[in-house]
Every structure is written in C-alpha cells, then in structure tokens.
Write a sequence for this structure.
C-alpha cells in the first residue's frame, strides 16, 4: 500500500526542527543488523530480513559498529579526565606549598629568613600547563591548525613511448 510507511520510515521520527532523530527502535534494528552481519550474512540478506533496502542495511551496520566503538571510548575518556583532575590537584598543592632553597643539605637564609626557591613553583606551573594541554586535546577544545600547502603536481607516464602517441 502506498500510504503505509515503509519499515525504515516507521523506525525513524522527525524532531521539532524536521531532522531525523535516532529512535530506540532504529537502535534495535541497527544492533540486529550488526549481529546478522557478524554471523556472516550479506547486506542483501540483512535488508530482506529487516524489510529495508541494501543501502539502509549497510548504514545500520555502520551506525551500530560506530556506537560499539564510541561507548568504550567515552568511558576511557572519562577515566583519563578523572586522572588528569587528580594530577592537576597534586600539581596545585606543589605550586601553593612553601619551598626553600637548599644547598649542600642546608637551608639558605637571607636576612634571617629562609630564601624562597622558585624552581619547584615554576616546575609546577609547567606541569599544570601540560595537564591543561592534555585535557584540551582529549576534549577537542583546541582550534584546528590551518596548514598551507604549496607546490605542484607532476605526472609521469611510464612504459609509453611518447613518439608512438603522435
């Protein structure tokens, strides 16, 4: 029947902005398509089984595979961010701690007060910046770097006698 929606349309819905949204039914269908593909089914057979076209079957498998890889990656990213948070806290503790200059095992005094050692503070600042850079990279916060490429392209025809082409 022409008025009856296809199986593919029934598993999708449009949001308020008119764009397709990913429904739980579509996710289940994608998972089933991936399971069938893992069993060695060809896309045409998957499409027939699910009542969709071959292109949609291929897309369903690809979406499922992407979701399978993306979910563990998000968990690892979260774990790494938590580790970076702990490292950052430790570096801040070093930054805020009072450091004195020591030479040959003895504290150096200036005017009766221990001489401050800025070395550990500067090292802590450097470490904090490195942690921030790593966090920005993990989260994709840095703007893409534009690269300008110059030069030309040279084509070389090998195994052809140019005189025979005339």
């Amino acid at each position: 029947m022409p008025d009856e929606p296809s199986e593919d349309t029934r598993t999708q819905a449009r949001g308020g902005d008119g764009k397709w949204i990913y429904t739980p039914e579509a996710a289940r269908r994608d998972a089933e398509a991936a399971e069938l593909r893992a069993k060695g089914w060809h896309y045409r057979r998957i499409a027939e089984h699910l009542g969709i076209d071959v292109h949609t079957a291929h897309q369903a498998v690809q979406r499922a595979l992407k979701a399978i890889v993306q979910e563990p990656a998000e968990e690892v990213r979260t774990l790494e961010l938590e580790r970076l948070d702990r490292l950052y806290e430790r570096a801040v503790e070093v930054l805020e701690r009072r450091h004195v200059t020591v030479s040959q095992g003895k504290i150096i005094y200036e005017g009766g007060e221990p001489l401050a050692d800025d070395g550990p503070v500067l090292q802590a600042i450097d470490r904090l910046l490195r942690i921030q850079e790593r966090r920005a990279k993990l989260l994709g916060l840095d703007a893409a770097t534009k690269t300008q490429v110059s030069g030309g392209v040279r084509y070389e025809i090998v195994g052809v006698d140019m005189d025979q082409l005339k």
Notes: Residues 67 and 73 are 10 Å apart (CA to CA).
